[in-house]
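Marked as duplicate of an earlier ticket. Keeping the data here for the record.
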Amino acid sequence: HLLNAYGWRLAFRPEDAGRFRFRDLLAYRIMGDGVNYLTPSATIAGEFARANLLSDSVPLPVRVNGVVAAKATQAAGQVAFISLGLGWAIGGTVPSLEPWSAAARVFCVLSALAAWPLWLSARTTRVRELALAARGASGWRGWVSRMPADLLGFWADHPARLGSSAVAFGLGYAWYTGETWLIARALGVPVDW
């Protein structure tokens, strides 16, 4: 939960991240996960809960953009974790694939890095122009229409935060793997990595 809350904090612009206490983000992250686990909403209802739990003193677009950006970087972290995990697992556990293990590992590492061109493309001048043009719209409809441009603008302005957020979420998934291994070992079940 700490890694996931940190990943969420990094999904805000630096000037906005300071508006939220880390312990609040951690609590809201856990509450949102609880909503996601208990409702059949395809893990979306918890995201609405997170945006609503954040302080009302912060404008709604900032809160929602932070939640949406975190969901995107969480997905990127999950793709990277799964891809790297498959590369590791295929190489050592599927005997019929042993001759192909090196190629499988390379493929999985490349898959894990596949999101980087998207992140780097967000740094283009055209994306910046779209983000600036969309900022002129007013009202909630204007905000909704400019949300994709705002997010791309954030990613263009802060690619290191974007990558760090994805890494934090990826490490969160890795932590669950470590917990599973420790639980199995504690139960006396011999499980290798």
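See parent ticket for discussion. The CA atoms of residues 135 and 146 lie 6 Å apart.
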